Amino acid sequence: MTGSPTAQQTLGSRLERALRDALDGEVAFDDYTRHLFSRDASMYSITPLGVAFPHHADDVAAAVEIAAGLGVPIVPRGAGTSLVGQTVGPGLVLDMSRHMNRILHVDPVARTALVEVGVVQDQLNRAAAEHGLMFGPDTSTSNRATIGGMVGNNSAGSGSLTYGMTIDHVRALDVVLSDGSRARFEPVDEAERRRRASADTLEGRIYQGLPALVDANAEVIRAKMPAFWRRACGYRLDRVVGFGAEKPFDLAKFVVGAEGTLVIATRALVDLVPKPARTVYAVGHFTDAASAIAATTDALACDPHQVELMDRTILELSRQKIEFADLGTVLVGDPGALLFVSFAGDDEQQLIGKLDQLDRQWQRSGHGYHTLRAVTPAEQAALLKVRKSSLGLLMAAGEGTRRPLAFVEDTAVDPVHLAEYTTRFKEILDEHGMEAGFYGHCSVGCLHIRPFVDLTDPDEVAKMRTVAEAVKDLVAEYGGVNSSEHGDGLARSEFNREIFGDALYEAMREVKRLFDPGGVLNPGKIVDAPSMTENLRDRDALPPAPPLRTALEFEVVGGMRGAADRCMNIGACRKSTAGVMCPSYIATKNEEHSTRGRANALVKALSEPDPHAALGDERLHEILDLCLMCKACKSECPMSVDMASLKAEALAHHHDVHGTPLRSRVFSSIRALNRIGSAAAPLSNLPGRIGFLRRILDRALGITAQRPLPAFQRDNLLRWFHRRSRPSDGTPVTWLADSFTTYTEPRIGRAGIELLEQAGWQVNLAGGGCCGRSSMSKGLLDDAKEKAAALVSSLAQDDSPIVGCEPSCVLMLREEHTALLPESTSVRAVADRVKQVEELLVEAIDAGRLALRADSWLAGRRIVFHGHCHQKAEVGTAATVALLRRIPGAEVVEIDAGCCGMAGSFGFESEHYATSMTVGGDRLFPALAGESDDVVVAATGVSCRQQIFHGAGRTAWHPVELVREAVEGRANAG
Question: CA–CA separation, 919 vs 925, rounded Å?
Fold first, then answer.
């Protein structure tokens, strides 16, 4: 699509007006939305004219008809995680994931599911699991990959040795054709094909023209189509050649892998397979990747479900992430590579016999130095979590614009040749001085090898192309395929003429013209593609970052923009079934409310000529607004994009441009307000209980009247501490009196301090100032700096450990203070002293300095624990769970319920209340609703306890309170 900027703007305006009139779904043509959808998980970037979010198939048909009528290309998009540029392009992007995500029917007898194309693979698998079934292709991105995206790409996964590819599981597709008409593609016999071919429609012309094309090219199709079965390249003419009485004509399978260039699918009827009752793993430990690959043949002889490789690069990267800390407890020695071999079925003893067989085979052949068995889900959890995160971990190894890129990452050869092929592949990389990480599917000869490239360096771009051409030739030499599951996209399509030969390539071009005479469906993919070195994200789409002074220190190449631009769009923030990230996306399913969306929006603002002014843009502020600053992205995003810090900095610039709102100033002064409220209690609690005063507060400050306010306690922690007699000896420890529990829940601090004293600690109370958390969350960074400096100065007077009961405040000393005060000589020393109080208490219990009674009221009770988001992100919850499990007779369960949705002041703000409750209602409230009344609920965060009480009607204890109860041995809950 070409034309002057003025002509493009005029065309965009016409398209936008027409779409708004015709569609039930939303339409967005603003610059920020266009930028967000200019990228996927590839190295490419193309800015579209606009984006539409269809609600249903009628919307899709209308959008295609309107866009095609204006000559505007259409790019269908699911999760936007394509690795080689399939889901970026000019024209109109259709986000099929936001609304078209319903599972319409699961038929356990026929073993099929009818789904809209925006359904996520894990979503389908949860529904199918109720009937003992699953969707066979098991991608590593199953927590965000949509069925439509898998159909467009012909995705596979680690289990493809058993289950094949998506094309093997598609029965029928409801599609929109390139003129906006609709059709149902399914296997048809010759009589039905002829009937459909008789219609004077685009569908009729397809049913008439494609068989003729196939017949005319049958010989070249059989001769030139790559023989290797696991392929996701070109059009699947091999699937329709030879149709007739014995082989139905099946357009549904034909368009799988077409990358949205022939039709746009709206619904899919897919096959389901029985879900194995058990899966067991042998994890071979090898000194290097070559040794692991060499062991693949023996593994395949044992009839495995899958064989997966992970090299040292991935393992070392995993050790740097708290999310994968458990891995270090199960590995033996320092492996240079791991080979995961799984066996699946219903008979556990048979499966264990397979493990025995493999172990003997490897020992006879001298493969590896250790084989770890992982039979139970608990034994497998840490291993599989890392394996499924290999892509993200490798991406995180990039620095600045030097990134591990997908351009030769999806080749496949017969596993018999894999060891030799990989050696020669590495020789190509070595010849050109390229580093890469190796992981992937040894069982099917596919390794995902991503060389590090800096696309801003012309020499590096030229070298990338040279390597791509050399690898393409190497693949052909071994009879393999250039793409085995990731597709052609912009990275590989230009090589298709050479790969398939002129005759077969011209047949594919004819297919494109038959299905899409106007060339509007995702042009430039598979056939008639641009050079792989056009439209490069880092070279072509981003100008140099203008200078910007920031209050926070961003310790990455490129400062604040570099911190945002670390996002490589792999979409882990779009998951919704585990972990915390990203709560606002879970609530809205809107791309701009994901970590990825916000990071890309910030990249756009920070690339403007005046980034300070751009950070004050109201549209940008709207995109950032629903970020709860939970910090989950810092640990769960493979790239560790710290959106909480980025938002805080952006808010500071927004305040500079527009002024600071009164409510932000009020919340930043929370310690002073809580101190005054405590001094005036109980009278200060009355306004919070009077309806008309709450409504005034709502109108004046935007503090919702729908949520109860915390109750001030007159006998706060400071008063209690200073009036009591304290031990005169013991090991010193400093208790941080946070701005919240000190004045509203002082019983928690009392419990913690008393426990420490019983364990032999001499507690000093640091109660003189605020850590600055509230100020930082509101973007008042100068105020946060002042508070941080004052608190650090007071804490630097000794060297005792620093603990507390509110994770967000205690961990502020470890993390944000170092970013606020990078030049301070004391801040790092103070940060190094911060510990979790749970760590000290576990140590004391295990050493016998703190005794818990076996006859407390908690014995025999079930305790469900919900961790604070900042705790999960910064240090993990292991210490808290360990402490609770020290309570004699208690059953402790940590619930994976995401973010509670409260996020400090966020849940008190009128415009955010509904989102707050939606987030809590996603997993946390239902999880607690499923527990009986006698179950004890524990939560470390003050906000979490408030939200649990308000949204679930349960009173949550702080873990130190429960331990205090067990020490005292009360017969009933106190």
Answer: 9
The whole-angstrom separation of Cα 610 and Cα 620 is: 14
Q: Please say whether the dihedral angle defined by the alpha carbons of residues 252, 256, 262 and 265, taken in this order, is positive or negative.
A: positive
Q: What is the rounded CA–CA span in Å between residue 74 and residue 697?
A: 48
- Write b or e for each residue in 382-404: b if 16 or more Cβ atoms lie within 10 A of its Cβ, otherwise e: bbbebbbbbbbbbbbbbeebbbb
If you write DSSP's letter for every residue of 6-32 in order, what string do you get? HHHHHHHHHHHHHHHHH-SSEEE-SHH
- Phi/psi at 766 (nearest 5 deg)? -100, 95
Contact status, residue 592 vs residue 32, Cβ threshold 8 Å: yes
Extract the runs of DSSP E, i.e. beta strands, from 705-760. Answer: 731-736
DSSP 788-856: HHHHHHHHTTS---EE-S-HHHHHHHHTHHHHH-TT-SSHHHHHHHB--HHHHHHHHHHTTSS---TTS
Torsion of CA 833, 834, 840, 843, to 10 degrees: -60
Average pLDDT estimate for 56-64: 98
The mean predicted confidence, pLDDT, of the chain is: 95
Rounded distance, CA 923 to CA 866, Å? 11
Taking only the tens place, the pLDDT of each residue in 849-886 is 999 999 999 999 999 999 999 999 999 999 999 999 99
**What type of residue sits at position 515?**
F
Structural contact between residues 298 and 339, judged by C-beta atoms closer than 8 angstroms = no
Name the helix (H) or strand (E) containing 651: helix 643-658
Give the pLDDT of residue 851. Answer: 96
- Distance, in Å, from the CA atom of 522 to the CA atom of 489, rounded to the nearest integer, reads 10
Place of tokens 């889901």: 87
Strands (E), 871-964: 891-894, 936-939, 956-957
CA distance 508 to 237: 8
Q: What's residue 323's pLDDT?
A: 67
Q: Which amino acid is at 15?
A: L
| Contact assessment for residue 76 and residue 148, using Cβ atoms and an 8 Å cutoff | yes
Q: Which tokens belong to 147?
A: 């069925």
Model confidence at 974, in pLDDT bands (50, 70, 90)? very low
Q: Mind listing the pLDDT tens digit for each residue in 889-935?
A: 999 999 999 999 999 999 999 999 999 999 999 999 999 999 999 99
Give every CB contact of residue 190 below 8 A, 6+ residues apart in sequence: 243, 244, 245, 249
The model's pLDDT over 524-534, given as tens digits with 9 standing for 90+, comes to: 999 999 999 99
Q: Which of 463, 453, 504, 617 is nearest to 214 (CA)?
A: 504
